[in-house]
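User: structure tokens for this one?
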Amino acid sequence: QVALSRRQCFLLIAAGSLSHFFLDHLFEENGHSTMYTWILSTGWWKGRAPINPDAVFVVGLLCVCLIGGFVYINRVEHGKSVTEKSNQSFFLILVIATLYCMWCASQIYLRNPPQPAIGEEADLGVIIFLAIYLFLPHGLCVLSMNQKDYNEALDGLPL
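Assistant:
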């Protein structure tokens, strides 16, 4: 039994607040909230989405970079600790997700006329919504752990 520091309390309160907000949005206003309207507006709902060869190239390139990055981090670079590898993997995911969101936003907001980023899905809205209300609270909970507990938890992971 160890007392929590102020930083840990703040991180846990922030994580709980965002998680509560996430649940509120899921079941709020019968699915007709402004948040859902924005998420759906990032998709393509004007009939079938045209096949865009640029999108296929961009998504393929991002997938190759993601898989190649994971292989490089976990198989090519030897001698790094599990913590370093997990931090590098997290940073790689963050970079690829940011590039993908930039691609989606450029297709929706910067092109005239707008075109579907990838098919008919509302990927941009869903990714941003989940990043803020699902992954950020989990990250805050991990950050609130004592460093010793965090290292012990990572050392048990098979990589």
